[in-house]
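Weekly structure sync, notes
Attendees: PL, DS, HV (note-taker this week)

Item 1: Phosphatidylinositol-glycan biosynthesis class X protein
DS walked through the input record. Source organism listed as Drosophila navojoa. Sequence as pasted into the shared doc:
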Amino acid sequence: MKCLTNPAILILIFIAALSVNSINCHALHQGVMRIEMDPVGMHRKLKYTIEFTEAIRNLNCEYVIAQQLPAAVYISTDELDDLQRLKMLNAKYPKFVDIEIITEKAKPFSVLLRGSTKIKDPIQLPIHFRYHAASRTTTLAKVKLDSPELYISCTNDDKQLIDKALLDEYDKFYCLDESSTDFVEQSEMEKCNWQRLRMELRIDKPLIAEIPVGDANGYIPVLCATLIISWGATVWIMLTTRKACKRINKQLAEEELQEEKLE
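Item 1 (cont.): predicted structure, written out as tokens:
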């Protein structure tokens, strides 16, 4: 086996340095999306902060964050309606979300968050976690949120100025289907002017929540205890009511006797 000569080692080091530099330049060329989620609680907020490249900020464009939410997560449409009325949020979401059903009966859905590439203010989305059906094997359920996708749409004059390297697939265009809060892929740019943008995702902590799960093994003891307490409380109320009625009747009878004596 031959050892590498000094020139060969230098060449390999040079190639490796070029590769690292190319990767760093590519990362700097892309924008950055930071995503944070409150660490605890059944009611949390997702916070999105997007830093676009200067080439994108100088264009007249708007963007949409497409966030897929699993069945274990729901939104309060009334809460989001209020935020939109106060101009604290610009979003598209289902008109009705059943907040009462458990995770096993719910379905995933998407929320679309709109913004302007010229504005750097973070976007906050309030979310809530559903309860799970009781289990005999686990006491915690892990709920993972998928990373969002970012779409961009620019005016006709600026559309051609977007660097193709910033787009996920520069020849693919999407229509915004607001009724289903989703994007539909199309091939005609004239009809659909949304394109998927490449972003560097920076998530400090995994978007995972641990939700308590009821213990199904305690169903029978809890049921028996509930029945005993319920029936005991019912009997106590009946006896107390009967005593009160007797006491009231006795007082009324005494008052009638006093009135008869006075007459």
